[in-house]
């Protein structure tokens, strides 16, 4: 069982998986990997697992099989990930929007919405162009629309943590503090 150590030196057991949700570019994979190390839990990146299962990139799944096929794979892979022992899971931006996956995450895990503002997200997604939903003439407009549609759903997560221009370790601290408080060991 994983335990986290906060700055006060207290530890808390983590019996449930912790699932990071939120828009593309919110930092879910980077934060997730570091959070897993902090909590002493395994880490699973749902997008990477989908690519492994499909034997090709997400961009190729979208291009050759279509978004619906990607969503089916995403549902299947997250179900499998959550069946195993507790871990930290980073999900693709659309995962929590799917009602079935959202229900499963609620039942099996604690969810954290990594929230970032539009400018931060734009800056981060510009670093690579492997996101099929943003391969168009107006990524800003697409992201604005996705924020309007999705933010109220991400807000259903158990916790909201801002990941704007904050250092990754600060974001990880903020999540660990919430988990420790939940476990009743916060100062
Ligand atoms: C998607 C986000 C991507 C990836 C796919 C679809 C979305 O993951 O799953 O391109 O619907 O928002 P990231 O959020 O890790 O970029």
Structural description of this entry:
By secondary structure, the chain is an alpha/beta fold. It has one domain: Rossmann fold. It has 8 helices and 7 strands, in the order E-E-E-H-E-H-H-H-E-H-E-H-H-E-H. The protein has a 5-stranded parallel sheet. A two-stranded antiparallel ribbon has the order 1-2. Strand 1 and strand 2 form a beta hairpin. The protein is globular, with a radius of gyration of 16 Å. 36% of the residues are buried. About 3% of the residues have low confidence. The protein binds shikimate-3-phosphate. The site of shikimate-3-phosphate has 10 residues, from loops.
* Helix residue percentage: 40-55%
Taking pLDDT < 50 over at least 5 consecutive residues as the criterion, the unreliable ranges are: 6-11
Strand order of the largest sheet: 4-5-3-6-7
Q: Helical stretch count?
A: 8
Outline the biggest β-sheet: 5 strands, parallel
CATH arch. level architecture: 3-Layer(aba) Sandwich
Outline: globular
CA distance, first residue to last residue: 22 Å
Radius of gyration over all CA atoms, rounded: 16 Å
Task: Give the structural class.
Answer: alpha/beta
What is the number of beta strands? 7
The CATH superfamily bears the name: P-loop containing nucleotide triphosphate hydrolases
Query: How many independent structural domains?
Result: 1
Bound small molecules, by name, code or SMILES, are: shikimate-3-phosphate
Give helix and strand order, one letter per element, not per position: EEEHEHHHEHEHHEH
| Top-tier CATH class | Alpha Beta
